Amino acid sequence: MATEIRKCILNIDPYVPGKPIEDVQRELGIDDVIKLASNENPLGPSPLAVQAVQEAAAKLNLYPDSNCYYLKQELSAHLGVSPDNLIIGNGIDELLTILGEIYLNPCDEVVFADPSFPAYATVTRLMGAKPVAVPVDGHFSHDLEAMAKAVTDQTKLVFLCNPNNPTGSMLTREQIDAFLEQAPPKVLVVLDEAYAEYAASKDYPDGIDYVREGRNVIVFRTFSKVYGLAGARVGYGAADPKIISLFNRVREPFNVNCLAQIAASAALRDRGHVEATLKNNERGKLFYYQKFEELGLPYVPTETNFIFVDLQGDGKKIFNALLRKGVIIRPGDIYGYPRCARVTIGKPEENARFIDELRRLSLGA
Length: 365
Ligand SMILES: Cc1ncc(COP(=O)(O)O)c(C=O)c1O
Description:
Number of domains: 2
Structural class: alpha/beta
Shape: globular
Oligomer: single chain
Strand order of the largest sheet: 2-8-7-6-5-3-4
Number of helices: 13
Helix content: 25-40%
CATH superfamily of the largest domain: Type I PLP-dependent aspartate aminotransferase-like (Major domain)
Distance between the termini: 56 Å
Largest sheet: 7 strands, mixed
Low-confidence stretches: none
Number of strands: 12
Mean pLDDT: 96
Bound molecules: pyridoxal-5'-phosphate
CATH class of the largest domain: Alpha Beta
CATH topology of the largest domain: Aspartate Aminotransferase, domain 2
């Protein structure tokens, strides 16, 4: 007889990652494959980070610094908060799991937008708690009024993904201020700002301000996106030191490996790489806007490095047809929008190739 499991884990759907380039090459026998599916940095990692990792590789016999001292010092200076306000993790993904382990009991409720980043539902289910998914509004943005109404006595956490994945929409400072004002004090508001650096609007709030103001919030950011280190796995949380100390109780002792720590410090210093990344992104965004308009495809204006677009057809079919042409995008059916797709802004030649293939498909070529 099989050993009994925790039943709640059967409610978790395995994560579906963006299809890796190597899989498409192997399965379809295509060499020239581009991936616009996982919102990675198309310019690659910072060259300074690559060099730092090469130099640090000679010390792989030693355990990493459990406290991430140097990375915290640099982030502290960068963000203007104390190192005691910071927790570093093996990506935001790990920090979300720890968050659940710290706060969630089986009867607790967790409120988040739908569609949004799937890990919020996963960690809620992992802990046997109740996910409360609130549909986005007509502009594909968080419906904060409905989210506020969804908060009950059982609610422990509210996730605000800002800007939101997969829609790219943004909440303004005014909107978040108003939400925080009315939120019950015992509810922890989680601001997932994985794409913060890409947000170009002047109304985009810096979530770290709320930490400085002593609000009951935790802000998550990552080195996976603008810093180009998705493969190294480094994310961080900023919050009151009392909250941070709870993460230190629960996390693994050496949760951030030494190459990741070194790479993140170097990438943080490489402003040139970040600026080039943002410039490429702005250019690609305008290109996509123009081309989607020419093709008559509605899209959600984005504050991120991806765009949610209505393909005006069977999204899965279009996804598969593009795959056969060596172009990987993210089909919208996984988010409940089968006509849509989420497309990462790549290098100019990658964006152009995606648009060309899409145009050919729409012409039936
Ligand atoms: C909104 C959001 N939060 C968190 C993550 C996870 O980030 P990390 O790579 O740091 O685990 C992602 C990754 O795509 C994301 O889109």
